[in-house]
Amino acid sequence: MESDGLREFVEHRPRLFALAYRMLGSASEAEDAVQETYLRWDATDRALIRSAEAWLTTALVNLCRSWLVSARARRESYVGPWLPEPVSTARGELGPLETIEERELVSLALLTALERLTPAERAVFVLREAFGYAHREIADMLDVTEANSQQIFRRAGQHVREDRARFGIPAEHARELIERFLKAARNGDIESLEQLLAADVSATADGGGVVRAARRQVHGAKHVARYLAGLLRLEVPGLELLLEEVNGAPAVVARGNGAPLLVVGIDVADGGIAALRLIANPAKLAYFARSNGSYGAIGALPDRRRRSL
């Protein structure tokens, strides 16, 4: 590719990756989607392209829509629960996350909820909610009418809201609670862990059938506390339990000699921990390990109320 075409693609690449990740819930697949988009860009007569952003976004989104169809079939045969791949966001990997809304839209909780959407619903929701495209622009990208784009967006929002209570807890309070959780986990203190958990807390683990992890959700404070204490009591050389910024929020990361072994995403609600998502499948941690070699320090989280989706 001539230097101008390559330079133009490189300028758009961070945004394309951020979009593909939100579409697919997989950083490794997002990298592949961006690479495939580049190959298509390279093979296209760019003299006929009026807007590089519009062309690249359209190509990427429709490629992701196609991949989501096959991904859904693969995930139906996945061993145990399927969770998104974690991404370290301390260095802006997924773009600016300066508001609570921006952080919410890359959270493991939201990405998990997006799995219930059809590919078209997910495309419209991500383009509109996360990137602010007008319905007219989305309609052109997806080859639908503007009215249809609006209907799809409303339907997607309803699906995402299902079973997702909103609590609006100040970020600093949430961080303090997670720090206490980390301390109890380090000490294997089951009683303290249980006190930090909501009565109806749930823990979902993704081991992919490769590493030890519960293949069904664990429910209830007592059961979850004992499960976590056993899981985090790993016999691993150089084991550390650290607090890092993952998908825009504090998360507990278990590392052995620096390599990530487990990422625990934590939802905080009403003064307690309401849900935990544990990603232990080594394939799900490969991108996290590559992009997070020196660990991701936690940045300041905005102390603002969350908006409802």
Largest sheet: 6 strands, mixed
Give the integer mean of the pLDDT values: 88
- Which residues sit in consecutive blocks of at least 5 with pLDDT less than 50? 297-309
Order of helical and strand elements: HHHHHHHHHHEEHEEEEH
Beta-strand segment tally? 6
Question: SS-based structural class?
Answer: alpha+beta
SS element count, helices? 12
Shape: globular
Radius of gyration: 20 Å
Question: Cα distance, first to last residue?
Answer: 42 Å
Which strand-content bin applies to the residues? 15-25%
Q: How are the strands of the largest sheet arranged?
A: 2-1-6-5-4-3
**Proportion of residues in helical segments:** 40-55%
Report on the structure:
The chain contains twelve helices and six strands. It is globular and about 65 Å long. With 309 residues, it is of the alpha+beta class. The model is unreliable at 297-309 (pLDDT under 50). It has a six-stranded mixed sheet, with helices on both faces.
Overview in brief:
The chain has 309 residues and is an alpha+beta fold.
Describe how the helices and strands are arranged.
Layout: H1 3-24, H2 27-42, H3 52-76, H4 100-104, H5 108-113, H6 119-130, H7 135-142, H8 146-161, H9 171-187, H10 190-196, E1 197-206, E2 218-219, H11 221-231, E3 239-246, E4 249-256, E5 259-269, E6 272-279, H12 282-291
Parallel strand pairs: 1-6
Antiparallel strand pairs: 1-2, 3-4, 4-5, 5-6
